[in-house]
Amino acid sequence: VDLDTAKQELEEFIPHVRNISESSIRKMARRDLVRFKQFKKQGIAVKFGRFSQKENNQIRKNIEEFLLITGIDSAEKLLFTSRYPEDKETINRLKAEHLFCEKLSEGIPRPWRLIYYRARKMFDPNNYKGRYSKEEKEKLKKYHALHGNDWKKISELMSRSNLSVAMKYSEIKSAVNYGPWSKEETQKLMQAVEEVIRKRMEKEDANSLSSSEKSQRDISIDRETLYQKLPWTEIETKVGTRYWRQCKQKWTTILTNKITKGQQLYRGTKGLQAKINLIKRLYEMQVEDANEVNWEELSNAIGGVPKAYVQAKFYKLKVSCVPLWQKKTFSEIIDYLFEEKLPELEEKL
Questions:
Q1: How far apart are CA 180 and CA 182, in angstroms?
Q2: How confident is the model over 146-194, as pLDDT tens digits?
Q3: How many CA atoms lie within 13 A of 200 on its CB side?
Q4: Whole-model pTM?
Q5: Rounded Cα gap, residues 185 and 15, in angstroms
Q6: Distance (Å, whole) CA 173 – CA 202
Q7: Less packed terminus of the chain by CB within 10 Å, N or C?
Q8: How many CA atoms lie within 13 A of 345 on its CB side?
Q9: Residue limits of the HTH myb-type domain (predicted)?
Q10: What residues contact 166, with CB distance under 8 A and at least 6 apart?
Q11: DSSP string covering 35-79, please?
C-alpha cells in the first residue's frame, strides 16, 4: 500500500494518523491495517488508553503459546533479545519464521506497537525491583550526565526498565519540594496548565473554526480540557520545583475546589452519602475490571468532580475497608464493599 492510501485507510481507525511519522505509518500499514479491518467486520472498535485485565490475559496467552511453538525458554529472551547476544540470531530467526508480530497481537484491537510496549512492561523482570536506594539514585544521576536521555542505555547499566529509570530521573533531577505548596508554586502550576491548554486549543482551532464557533468552543471545552490528557512532564518542567505526579495531584485538588465551590464533599454526612453513591454505582455497572469503569460518568455521582478525584477516593475506600484487597479481583472488591461496607455506611448515615 502506498503512503497516501495507507494514511487514508488508517485514518478511519486512528484519527490522528496524519501527525505520525511516515516510517511509523508504513509499519502500521503492514502490521495493523488488515487486523483493524477484520475487527471492524466483527463490530469491534480499535482501542487506546489503559489495557484491561482481559487484554493483559490475552497478551500472556499469546506469549505463552509463542514460547511453546518456538521453544524459546523465557518471555524475557523473546521481548528483550538484545540482553542475550549469544542467542540473538536464533531468536530473531524463530520470531520471523513463526510470525511473532501477528501472534503477539492476536485478539487485541490495538496498534501492534502499543501491544508490544505493554508486553515488554509486563514481562520485564527489571520492572519489579522496588524502591531505589540512595546509591542507585546517585548512579542514575551519574549515568544521565554521561548518556543524557538514552534510557535504553541507562536501563541496561542499572538493570531497571526504560520506563522506571526515566520516571525516577524525572523525580530526582532537580531540588524537588515535598512539603506544602507555596503560593508561588501554585501560581506557576496554574500558569503552566493555562499555557499548554491554550497552545492545544490554538492548534486544534487553527483554520478549522469560525470566530463565532471559537467563542462557543471557549464555553464548552472547560470541563474536559481542564483535566484530561495534559502533558504533565512539560508542566513539571515549567513549575520547576515539583515532579509531574505532584503537579497532577495538586491540579486535581485545585479543580475540585473550583468545581465544588470549596465544599468538603468527603466530610460529614456529605462524605458518607458520596461513599454510598460511589459503591452503589460501581456495583450497578457489573464490570470485571477497573479499566472498564466510566469514571467520568461516576464523577457526577459525588458532585461532578474530576474523575481523578473519584479514582483517588475509591482507592482510599478499598485500602481502608477491604481486607487483603491486593489479592482480590476488581469485582470481588466491589462485591465486598456492597455486601459488607454499604450497610454499615447507611446505618451510620
A1: 6
A2: 888 888 889 888 888 887 888 888 777 655 666 788 888 889 988 888 8
A3: 18
A4: 0.48
A5: 37
A6: 31
A7: C
A8: 21
A9: 124-161
A10: 149, 151
A11: HHHHHHHTT-----SSPPHHHHHHHHHHHHHHHHHH----HHHHH
Torsion angle of the four alpha carbons 331, 332, 333, 334, in this order, in degrees rounded to the nearest 10:
50
- Per-residue pLDDT of 210-227, as tens digits, reads 554 544 444 444 455 565
C-alpha cell at 115: 501491544
The grid coordinates of residue 107 equal 485478539
Residue in this structure with the C-alpha cell 499548554, named with its chain if needed: 196
Cell of 125: 523482570
Domains of the chain: 3-123 (no CATH), 134-173 (1.10.10), 183-208+218-260 (no CATH), 268-348 (no CATH)
Side chain identity, residue 262: G
Contact 314, 307 (CB under 8 A): no
How many Å apart are CA 51 and CA 56, to the nearest integer?
7
